[in-house]
Amino acid sequence: MSKKKIQAIRGMNDLLPEQSPLWQYFEGQVRTLMQRYGYSEIRTPIVEQTALFARSIGEVTDIVEKEMYTFEDRNGDSLTLRPEGTASCVRAAMEHGLLHNQVQRLWYQGPMFRHERPQKGRYRQFHQVGVEAYGLDGPDIDAELILLTARLWKQLGLYEHVTLELNSLGSAEARAAYRELLVAYFERHHEVLDEDSRRRLHSNPLRILDSKNPDMAPMLADAPQLLDHIDAESREHFERLTGLLDAAGIGYTINPRLVRGLDYYSRTVFEWTTTALGSQGTVCAGGRYDALVEQLGGKPTPAVGFAMGIERLILLLETLSLVPQDADPVLDIYIIGMDEAGSQDALLLGETLREQLPTRRIQVHCGGGSFKSQIKKADKSGARLALLIGEEERAQQQVTLKFLRDARDQQRLAQQDLAETLADLLDTP
Ligand code: ATP
Ligand code: MG
Question: Which numbered ligand comes closest to the C-alpha of 281?
Fold first, then answer.
């Protein structure tokens, strides 16, 4: 039998204890923000029928063409690890009757899976926070989603470091007409198109506008712009949206080449980008997808949403040194039993103090060892105070208090009113 060490799958990361406080800080900020805006959390399975993604994301997108983790289960059904959350959210909302004549404001968070080339800010298992609103077709809800993200950036200290890009894709009909215009233009410049773009010319020509190939840049700069060809209603919708953002003081740039990678968008699309992360600069992206619910077999339902990449935002916080000091909660109290009976007392004292000091972080030493090694562990734990219980302390119903961070003499304290004394000590910085 081979003893070769089994390792994690490429592009899928472990989140280690030293990193989790920053994630928890971020997730905590998101959770309270959603509550403050009145959004409810929805959790869906990580695996869905393959057809859900093929039908919603679009057959000729990067995700469906080459990035999905698709497999047959034991019944021979084709299943896929979710590459994004919108399709699952729509599926679940339809299945449970949440969309019929109702407004829904939903959010979710969790891992997504895409088989891409792993690099900084791009992984095969990554995490998103997603927000979706159903039943509202006006630009006010589009603005609300943007305001919500702007507030999050402000809370995290990121607002100065991200830029909002906006575009409108118009209606499906307007886009179809524009598409013909665009294909004709690209055909006139066929010699400049790279291989990828030639492949997309008839399957997904709008995506060519997204190309980062510098050789194609001048040609793309002169291409007809979707924003000049959208329908009058979509134009008005877009102008009302920009008006709302102006009124709220949210800056943006209109990027007529912003088309988004997924098929299901219509009208408003937006991205928040940063220049601080190299080529993986989009931290949040979304838009309106009024046709999707019907496309998946439901009644026509206006919808708008976005998803943000948690890894990229965490990287950004680290790159900009915006990690809060107290993101890493250290211990307050470390309790040591100095003999066999003492370790039982320590365990019980830990429980009593947790009842009395519910906000304090208390750890009880486990695993015995010499007094010296236990004190060393207490020191390493980061706790401010250590409590020691040995034979003498037990006999007198006391504990010994040691100050681990201050140059103060140790004290004997009665177990009776210990919690009060500790609370006072820990409240003074
Ligand atoms: P990109 O153009 O960077 O591939 P995308 O258009 O495929 O992004 P979306 O499907 O819009 O991305 O997903 C929303 C957000 O999720 C992205 O803006 C990004 O922050 C994050 N994201 C997408 N794919 C990955 C990935 N493979 N690894 C880490 N984060 C990702
Ligand atoms: Mg992608």
Answer: 1
